[in-house]
Amino acid sequence: MTIGLDQQPDAAAGENAVATVQDTGNPWVSNFDPGDGALGSSIVIDDVVGGSWYALNGHANGLAGSELRVLIAQVTTDGDLSGQLYCQVFPNGVGADEDLVTLAFEPGNACGCTDVNACNYDSSADYDDGSCYLPDACGICDGPGAIYECGCADIPAGDCDCDGNVLDECGVCGGTGIPAGDCDCNGNVLDACGVCGGTGVDVDADGICDDIDNCTDITSMSFADEGNIGCLYFGCMEPTADNYDSSDNIEGAQRPMIAASGMVVPMV
Prior knowledge:
The chain has one helix and ten strands, in the order E-H-E-E-E-E-E-E-E-E-E. It has 268 residues and is largely without helices or strands. The chain has one helix at 28-31; strands at 19-21, 52-54, 83-89, 99-105, 111-112, 127-128, 234-235, 250-251, 257-258, 264-265. A two-stranded antiparallel ribbon has the order 1-2.
């Protein structure tokens, strides 16, 4: 007689030995054949106390497996086996929700699930033992019992929703990606140097990036204590000219002059 055990209990796995209850006037436990054929006698348990065996709530060997079954006895006999079992079951381990199930068995009758629609239907069973369980809402045996996000089908691999959409380059499900004219998902654009969100400029509008630092030369027309524009000098940029100056970066007649006020006044 057992509860979920077909060998010695594994304490490391949370299994425990089965406890028994018997009348002292009818010690049925000791009358069971230990397996060597030495005792082999008829056993009748029909007194007031009867015979009980149980596992405490929480013992691992008392938990139902994927088939929602728990082994309660292994009996071999060359005679007839009959009787009734009065079973107490705690669904999900909640004692207040106990189920009381009566299992009757007669000679030649096999117990099992007799519901042809059940996942564990047993065509050889003559008596339904209450172990039947049906497919979940999606027709899956031992399934989660709930409708998935896409009905009874999961979101297809690579999609981000049930409508066939995918993530765009900005991580938005079904989004349109980076807007036209922008260079990233944050609304930035390319600067004159081709840097996304950069501060490069093309001050002389020649299509070439003027990637220059702050100007600290007071003689420059763009002198500033802070900012992001480098020094600009008007002057001759023609190498063959007599007044060519390699430091000039804006074409002009000559370098600007500094007025008394400190402002840059270009002369043409």
